[in-house]
Amino acid sequence: MSNSNWVLPICVLMGAATFGGVFLVMRPNKPDPQPAAQPAVAKRADTPNVPPQQEMPKTEDTAKEEPVKKDLPLPIKKDPTPTFAKAEFRSWKVPAPDNLSGLEKGTFDVKDVTVSDDGKHVLVKSKREVTCLNVVTGQVTQTFRPAKPRWDYQKPETNFMFLSPDASCVIVGSESLSADKKTEIKEVTAYGATSGKVLGKGSLDERSGMHGFADAAVFTPNGTYLLLPTFHYRDGVLIQAVASSSGAVRMIDFPVKKDTGRSWELTLAVPQEPATLLVHRRSGGKTNPGGVTALDLKSGTEKPVLSLTVDPWNLFNRGVQISSDGNLLMSQGLQVLQVCDWRADKRLLELKIHQMSNARFTPDGKRLIVQWLPQYQVVFIGGTKGKDIQNVRSRLELYDIASQNKIGEFTPEKHGLSKQIGGLAVSRDGKTLVWGSETSVIAIDFKEAFGVDPLPSPSRPKEPDALPLK
């Protein structure tokens, strides 16, 4: 057998949708290396020549007094203490009930975060509620809870609660029966994030499918409207626009075929071009394997984005995302991540991303943050250390899209933080990285995390998004 290590991967199924594994690494028993010869020490010119001390010859008496040397076990070498400076971070605890167990365990963990443009507060979303947190004072200013479910056996969840991109408002959808139980009432309510006041209410079209909103809903780039697409079996796709300032609901007027909206999984509004939507369908077929199409709301024409060939994974995050400048589109699958210039239909980046999730564009639109969350351990067997189990740490990697190079890396556990990352976000100015870790919110300076300066980011447009509304 050669002296090189050999690795035997053993994969273990963990949970219903997560894969874990153990890697066994066999260390060969190599002979201990001989100590290196001591280098000659240069002697100063003024040092007197002193003869070396003569070793006394061993007699029978001295031999008895000399202690017997035993073969002692080699000391286990511990990994040296890291010498890098730990990054400074801020953290805030989000209120949650104590001693949650069973199906309720983890329901208050942070899964989505948006940051205000001035960086003074964040909106935090869990499965059970939405919290507005003032990051200057560390105080929770408002708590928003979902509406009562349609059916009595259901528990209230935040699937129909939507956070504006600038963290200024929360829109809550509700579905109930009229007093005579003959009519379904579908409504939306807009709340001010920091004040908690009701900004207004609106009634949704009776043909609206509330369950289709969870993934397909999206805010326009500057947060003027929340777009709610739904598919009706007779009339095709319907897109309603909810005004974030008042909750008023209007239908978007666009010529579209009846089957255009079928199987929409998510929708993206294009910055600077709010009348253009990027739509992903569950199956784009052989002619469009990535399933992403650019839809012009004014003309009703469609253009497939063929440079994206990966089938995006939308179960735990938005598998297709657009940069803040509207130029680049990212599609993330289970094994591969792709970035393209969707107008030129040219692919710019492709990464093998096994066990990665929660990729995000930085606000400048030129970089990408990718979370790497391994689900395995490495077990070393043999050699002088014996059996040793090493956890593989999660980390965040920063990529430059133009050069396709990784330019930074941040490992939370090295800085005393948990590996749990939920709802990764970057402040609009690009200077602060924010994420959820169980029931806590973590904020850290971008440069301290990645070792590179953030790039200048365009300010959010102040004028309302123009849409073809009825």
Features:
single chain, 470 residues, mainly beta, 4-stranded mixed β-sheet, 4-stranded antiparallel β-sheet, 3 helices, 32 strands, 3% helix, 40% strand, disordered N terminus
Please explain how this structure is put together.
The chain is mainly β and 470 residues long. The protein contains three helices and 32 strands. The strands form eight sheets. Strands 1-2-26-27 form a four-stranded mixed β-sheet, with no helix packed on it. Strands 3-32-31-30 form a four-stranded antiparallel β-sheet. A hairpin with a 2-residue loop joins strand 31 and strand 32 (440-445). The longest helix has 6 residues, at 60-65. 33% of the residues are buried. Residues 1-27 and 29-84 have low confidence and may be disordered.
Total number of helices: 3
**Strand fraction band?**
35-45%
Contiguous uncertain segments of 5+ residues: 1-27, 29-84
Question: What is the CA–CA distance across the termini?
Answer: 76 Å
C-alpha Rg, in Å? 30 Å
Derived structural class: mainly beta
